[in-house]
Amino acid sequence: MTSSSALAPVPNLIGGEWLTSSATQNIPVFNPSRGEIIAQTPLCDAATVNDAVSAAHAAFPAWADTPPTERARVFFRFKMLLEDHFEELAQSVTREHGKTVSEARGDVRRGIEMVEFACGIPSLLMGEILPNVARGIDCDAVRQPLGVCAGITPFNFPAMVPLWMYPVALVCGNTFVLKPSEKVPLTAIRIAELLLQAGLPPGVFNLVHGGREAVDALLIHPKVRAVSFVGSTLIARYIYETGTKNGKRVQSNGGAKNYVVVMPDADIDHTVRGVVEAAFGCAGERCMAGSTAVVVGDASKRFLPSLIDAARAIRVGPTDTADQPGMGPVITRQHADRIGELIEHGTREGATVAADGRGVKIAGAPHGFFVGATILDHVQSGTMVHHEEIFGPVLNVMRFGDLDAAIDLANASAYGNGASIFTRSGKAAREFKHRVKAGMVGINIGVPASMAWFPFNGWDDSFFGDLHMQGREGVQFFTQLKVTTTRWFNDNEGTIWADR
Ligand code: NAD
Fold first, then answer.
1. Which of 36, 153, 450, 465, CA to CA, is 20 to 30 A from 5?
2. Which domains does the chain have, with CATH numbers?
3. At 328, phi and psi to the nearest 5?
4. For 1-18, what is the mean pLDDT?
5. Per-residue pLDDT for 3 more than 50?
6. What is the 184 CA–ligand 1 centroid distance (Å)?
7. Ligand 1 mean position to 154 CA, how many Å?
8. Closest by alpha carbon to 151, among 228, 237, 236?
């Protein structure tokens, strides 16, 4: 989409300079609470991407040679700057994404935790040694950086998701090119300014805006060694296949459809709070959203009336005001319309609308992209709303007779990001944890997104690759092992130690 708005396109960061793009096409960035254009994102071409990769490539030798402790020190300063600017960054997320301020604070906080993790990476870079693998011969393995790494990120966590990638890559000694979501470029830019202020040398981190052309240029560029991607499954699979075909390491997180099982013995108040937060937090625009409540046995009688009341009570509205609503808008008008169409489709497939968020009108924000909290009850297996990721404030409800049937349902999903159970029974929780086919499991917790020190651990169509983001796996992804076998000769006698 090209806009006639007079706003200048947001700049790229290449080789330490903020440069205006020469792109001929821009796309508008909205404040979703108001439907107003607040910025323009340039759709950069392959030549601009090449400039950024070349700058990263030129900066690599000196940065890789910088002691890990010094690299980490930049990130200690970065962490302090992120804390100093915490509220400003949360406001930026709210403005371009539409999350409530409290949700935006969560986005920034989880991003800062990645920086805290990255500050400790030097200890994870320590190698291993086995002396005397044969007489007089020692063997050691050390971790070395890869070179230029690239990151491509989605719209839904403007602060956190880019920070899953480059703090780890950079402390490991790589250089980086980030292509943030074209829908939310502003927070990524502000955070990059703080990273430069923390003392990162020019060219070590670069930022280029764009869409498919920019992404393809990164995927085929011979100097890019590794690609980290987060986004929808269709694109995640494409990134993995294209990147690996071009010889790159790829970690590629896709979409999801997460099940929340409610057992008959679950604590009702706690469960309602947990399921409401899982389904409607961040307006459902989370890869860890609880999108289907699987209600077991007579949990439906105890749990559903309170759940429906709680969903209907969520106040939707603009998030860029002091009077914060319970839920903000979704990202674009098109996305709001698509969510509405999927709800309609669900009703044609036989679901009943127990809470209806269609057609909400907000006084004072008539152009915002709002959808209210929606519950589709009696959703049937195999229907479109059952398997399609809606990525909005829509919760499916399905009813089953026992835990086995609930686990079988979750395990039939093509995705494998998260799954949760609410119960008072240790036996049921243990059974669920062991058998459910998902990489992140919650027990009496609705959104079991793992923290920085653990891998963000999608399975199946929610992840393509071998090494996940976050934690030790992140460090392994951004480094390669070098194994050295050493034998020293005796200078005076010309014989080797092993011969003596
Ligand atoms: P998206 O796939 O539309 O876009 C993600 C990135 O890919 C953006 O930078 C975009 O510019 C780029 N892109 C889009 N189309 C492309 C194409 N045809 N070729 C190359 N690049 C392309 O995703 P989104 O709408 O921004 O984000 C929402 C999705 O992200 C949801 O599916 C959600 O589940 C997923 N997500 C997953 C995780 C996870 O860790 N598994 C985390 C957050 C979001």
1. 153
2. 2-254+462-484 (3.40.605.10), 259-443 (3.40.309.10)
3. -95, -170
4. 81
5. no
6. 12
7. 4
8. 228
- Three-state SS annotation for the chain: CCCCCCCCECCEEECCEEECCCCCCEEEEEECCCCEEEEEEECCCHHHHHHHHHHHHHHHHHHHHCCHHHHHHHHHHHHHHHHHCHHHHHHHHHHHHCCCHHHHHHHHHHHHHHHHHHHCHHHHCCCEEEEEEECCEEEEEEEEECCEEEEECCCCCCCHHHHHHHHHHHHCCCEEEEECCCCCHHHHHHHHHHHHHCCCCCCCEEECCCCHHHHHHHHHCCCEEEEEEECCHHHHHHHHHHHHHCCCEEEEECCCCEEEEECCCCCHHHHHHHHHHHHHHHHHCCCCCEEEEEEECCHHHHHHHHHHHHHHCCCECCCCCCCCCCECCCCCHHHHHHHHHHHHHHHHCCCEEEECCCCCCCCCCCCCCCCCCEEEECCCCCCHHHHCCCCCCEEEEEEECCHHHHHHHHHCCCEECEEEEECCCHHHHHHHHHHCCCCEEEECCCCCCCCCCCCECCEECCEECCCCECHHHHHHHCEEEEEEEEECEECCCCEEHHHC
Other CB atoms closer than 10 Å to residue 148's CB: what's the count?
27
Q: What is the per-residue pLDDT across 225-250, written as a single tens digit (0 to 9) for each?
A: 999 999 999 999 999 999 999 999 99
Which pLDDT belongs to residue 489?
A: 85
What is the mean predicted confidence (pLDDT) over 176-200?
A: 98
Report which ligand 1 atom has the smallest distance to the Cα of 155: 26
First-to-last CA distance in the chain? Answer: 77
d(CA 478, CA 124): 12
Ligand 1 atom at minimal distance to the Cα of residue 210:
11
- Separation of CA 183 and ligand 1 centre (Å): 11
- Residue 492 pLDDT level (bands cut at 50, 70, 90): low
Residue 442: pLDDT above 80?
yes
Q: Which residues line ligand 1 (CB under 6 A)?
A: 152-156, 161, 179, 181-182, 211-212, 215, 230-232, 235, 253-256, 287, 389, 391, 417, 456, 458, 462
Question: Is the model's pLDDT at 491 over the cut of 70?
Answer: no
Rounded to the nearest angstrom, the distance between the alpha carbon of 252 and the centre of ligand 1 is 10
Nearest CA to ligand 1 atom 39: 253
Amino acid, res. 419: A
Pocket test for ligand 1, best of 165, 235, 467 (most atoms within 8 A of CB): 235
Catalytic residues: 287
What confidence tens digit (pLDDT) does each residue in 262-287 have?
A: 999 999 999 999 999 999 999 999 99
Which residue is closest in CA terms to ligand 1's atom 18? 212
